Amino acid sequence: MTAFKRVLFAFTIILSGFSVWAQYEPGENFDKDWLFYNDENPNGQQPELDDSKWRQVNLPHDWAIEGPFSSEYNARYGGLPIHGTGWYRKHFTMPATAKGKVVRLEFEGAMYNAHVWVNGNLVGNRPYGYIGFEFDISEYLKYDGSDNVVAVRLTPQDLSSRWYPGAGIYRSVWLKIDNPVYVDQWGTYITTPTATPEKATVQIETNVVNKSADNQQITVTHEYLDPSGTKVGSAKEDLEIPAGQTGTSALYTIIESPKLWDLDAPHLYTAVTTLTVDGQVTDTYRSTFGIRSIRYTRDAFYLNEKQVRFNGVCLHHDNGALGAAVYRRADERKLQIMKEMGVNAIRTSHNPPSRTFLELCDELGLLVQDEAFDVWKMEKVPNGYNLFFEEWGELDLKDMIVRDRNHPSIVMWSIGNEIIEQRDKKNGWTVAKKLHDVCRATDPTRPTSVGLNYYPAPYDNNMAQQVDVVGMNYKPSRYSEVRSNYPGLPIYGSETSSCTSSRGVYHLPIEKYKTHPSLQVTSYDLIGPGWAYPPDIEFHFQEKNPYVMGEFIWTGFDYLGEPTPYGGRDNSTNGYWNDDWPARSSYFGAVDLCGFPKDRFYLYQSQWTEKPMIHLLPHWNWAGMEGENIPVYAYTNCDEAELFLNGKSLGRKVKGVDKTTILIDFFRYEPKTFESPYRLSWEVPYEAGELKVVGYKDGRQVSEKVIRTAGKPAKVRLSVDRNRIAADGRDLAYVTVRIEDKDGNLCPNADNLVTFDVRGAGKLIAVDNGNAATLESFQDTKRKAFSGMALAILNSGEKAGTITLTAKSKGLKGAKIQVQTE
Ligand code: GAL
């Protein structure tokens, strides 16, 4: 019998208002009770080392997020200590029953260059921090009840990335104890060559490992469970596998009237695979999959034979104040916020994401472009992955695909982003071809892609032609040229806009600047670096060229590091981005680092959603500017909008007809202004009071947004995303903090310091306010508000109970909120 049950997330338990997925587990969770030492230690792997003074940590763990921020570190990585040596050790005993079994240790990801020892024996090394790996450690273990110790050494380097990668064993670890006949790691490959509402063909290939000393006669059985857990099909085959070898079983099953995986109904099926030898079950393995079809033409992408345009975002993997450590709820919330913006697709820029992230995309109904690399052999930063590419590149890519290919959400493999080889006549296309071939050999059901930011070099040198679907970064004005020069290439915007802004910050009069002394960027959604342009420009070119399959904006969320337009350029600063210290995290997000929408969120929502919405900017606190014109923008998906100041109409505007002149300074783009049909605007002589906008569809009022001039800060207001969370030690509750006047209006410029006190069944795990240029620690019990808001993240303990958060701020009425853990 398999020693550990593998549980699957095919069912949801609804617990009064929140849902807990029983998640897929590859083995016994091995995340708890590790010891951590953040420095070189020549004896770190020695079993007898006295580690009693090492710090106790649970995984997933990111040491860099603990800070402190320092100008000694690189603002490109968030001004945080992402480099150095980190040792992790864990002591454990093995049951005597495990002797003779196959014991594997699986790491979902460790940042960076992991070396793993068991009882002093080096069992393996894996450089790439974004890929999962496992080692068979059976022969190094003691099964007599005495102490075993696993030691992991990580050596992330300075100048090794272009953003914050995190540092540590930042994804989960699993201990897997199996009989010698078992399903390999990531051992099933499920495809649905037919997937219609009437019928599905489910094809499954299973890699079965025989580590026993004998040849084995193995029966492989699959049972298919529909989303409700009902058995809907099965398949079976006998396989003979010689001793020490791996064999593959290939079977198909017809499922009648399947529930297709779709964006608005992401139905998931389960395959339960059982291996039997001589009537004894040797392994049970569960795989989740979806039944869906994808198809690309030169002009469009189809999901289940319906055309879908990519309303996509690029996302880095960090979760702001929590760093790179995986928290399921943090990713879930991130993706939910993205869906609310109208997003239907994610580009996992520029690396393999966590398993959890992909599971969530499956569950939430999001399309994914799974991206392998930001660099191949030619360097972007001196200590980057290019140092490992030659030796590990193909394996890392293959492993990403083998790990991920059952996820119905994934619709494309990307072999790279803005690879320097684009300009290399020899290596550009040959490496691209090799990587494309790896993808094809590992999963022929999805196209390959690459994100190209050069034009025309990679088209002229035969590199673009190596992939199935070509991603263009920041080249909307070239779409038509590529189409006419290379009519056979399907194209989409793999990275677009790169507009920057700071939530709630408006600089008047509107101007186009490169940087601002405040180290913030105005939220009129106009400013970006030289290659960037406002979202409107991409909308325009996508509309003009409907064969472009959509776009992935840079970025959905702000992320740690790369504080463009601040910080410096690699060429002039040797890769250190500290010129505009303390600017230390990105301004690119449509949503800030806290998960609070910026104005741009609504500009995309107006373009990507249909439920009537209207948004108004800026805030309405401009004391001292009475009578002066303030530019007021409305973002709406309605036909018309009417603005009122203190009850007086300032006129109706028609979307698409009444245009807004916006400034652009996008390289090689003339003229320097654009008449945007995507924004409605008014010049409003300032007068304190109430600014209201009303949206009309077919002449009927369907939406409205009101902004009032706020008085003095009077109180703290707290609200929480979920007031019941799981008592599992990893669940999170996100508490939004607002500084309000006595009437409940947000004070848009408030920066009051708020102090938190947390009692009961959980702890305060992080605080933030979305300010990209502050050095306040994420791990504190206080935070200043930024543009009137802050965030406190609560983390459940393992005992059910109540978490009580109290927030105080000098001179203001405090607030209290409670969260139940169950
Ligand atoms: C792109 C790059 C991204 C990010 C972005 C910022 O060129 O692919 O990783 O750096 O620029 O605008």
Number of helices: 9
How many domains? The number is 5
The biggest beta sheet reads:
8 strands, parallel, barrel
- Structural class, from secondary structure content? mainly beta
Strand tally: 48
**CATH fold topology of the largest domain:** TIM Barrel
- Poorly predicted spans: 1-22
Bound molecules: beta-D-galactopyranose
* Mean pLDDT level: 95
End-to-end separation: 32 Å
Supply the CATH superfamily name of the largest domain. Answer: Glycosidases
Apparent shape: globular
Structure overview:
- It is globular, with a radius of gyration of 27 Å.
- The chain is mainly β.
- Helix 1 packs across helix 2 and helix 3 (386-404) runs parallel beside helix 4 (427-442).
- The chain is built from nine helices and 48 strands.
- The chain has five domains: 14-22 and 180-294, Immunoglobulins (Immunoglobulin-like), CATH 2.60.40; 31-171, Galactose-binding domain-like (Jelly Rolls, Sandwich), CATH 2.60.120; 309-569 and 592-608, Glycosidases (TIM Barrel, Alpha-Beta Barrel); 614-708, Immunoglobulins (Immunoglobulin-like, Sandwich), CATH 2.60.40.10; 715-821, Immunoglobulin-like (Sandwich), CATH 2.60.40.
- It starts with 11 loop residues before the first strand and ends with a strand.
- The strands form twelve sheets. An eight-stranded parallel β-barrel has the order 23-24-25-26-27-28-29-30, surrounded by four helices. Strands 5-4-6-11-8-9 form a six-stranded antiparallel sheet, with no helix packed on it.
- The structure holds beta-D-galactopyranose (GAL).
- Residues 162, 349, 417-418, 453, 473, 495, 498, 529, 554, 562, 564 line the site of beta-D-galactopyranose.
